[in-house]
Amino acid sequence: MNDLPPHPPLDQYYRHASDRDDFVRALFDRGAPAYDQVNALCSFGSGARYRRAALQRSGLKPGQRVLDVAIGTGLVAREAVRILGRPQDVIGVDLSAGMLREAGASLPIPLIQARAEAIPLADSSIDLLSMGYALRHVPDLTGTFREFRRVLRPGGSVLLLEIDHPRSRAGGAALRFYLGSVVPAVSRLLGGGQEAQMMMRYFWDTIDACVPPAAIEGALSEAGFTSVSCDVQLGIFRAYRARR
User: Fold this and answer.
1) Does any domain span residue 84?
2) Residue 52 in contact with residue 119, Cβ under 8 Å?
3) Is 30 contained in some domain?
4) How many domains, the chain?
5) Which domain holds residue 27?
6) Which pLDDT tens digit goes with each residue over 150-204?
7) Edge-to-edge strands of the sheet including 226-233?
């Protein structure tokens, strides 16, 4: 089974695919303190409401156990806690220690520093696995999805939130200008400095180079998931869902 990177190596940031983890970890460690503020620029007003609705549409309800992979500062996990009512039912995993510190400052949930493709949890121990806008940072989609399937209970669900190019050429140009130029520049001016500017520039470049949605859905199927689907809102926000 061949690996499927979410995008080719980005030479302007690192030379080889093997350097990706170290680069991403350092980038998000440095940018973590400014992440919530600059992330609001990318949500177009959807933010918490969109994340909560996406979790609810995935069937999340009290009594279940959630794993939020690449938790970042906890934006998706926070909405999961609101739905479940019990912080101990949500676990957060992230490669970046800086992001975990930010998440832990506001969320009293278990936090683990680990890679998405090597989750230190038991087989069949999670009801719903979520990942918000971080799929582009793993080294191999199919291998990562196999690991997601391993930790999910039979009947469990995966929810992957991502940003994609709009269909129209004009919409694509507008998104490129906004996420590729405006957001990085404003992120720096808002106090995030050069670290936040680079983080958000990398954010856009990974979106721009990402494999198409059909490849992501195909990787989910190849990893053994069923009922693979994808909802699209505002032409750019994608919610991939699948079931073990």
Assistant:
1) yes
2) no
3) yes
4) 1
5) 20-167+198-243
6) 999 999 999 999 999 998 999 999 999 999 999 888 888 876 788 889 999 999 9
7) 111-113, 90-94, 66-69, 126-132, 152-163, 237-243, 226-233
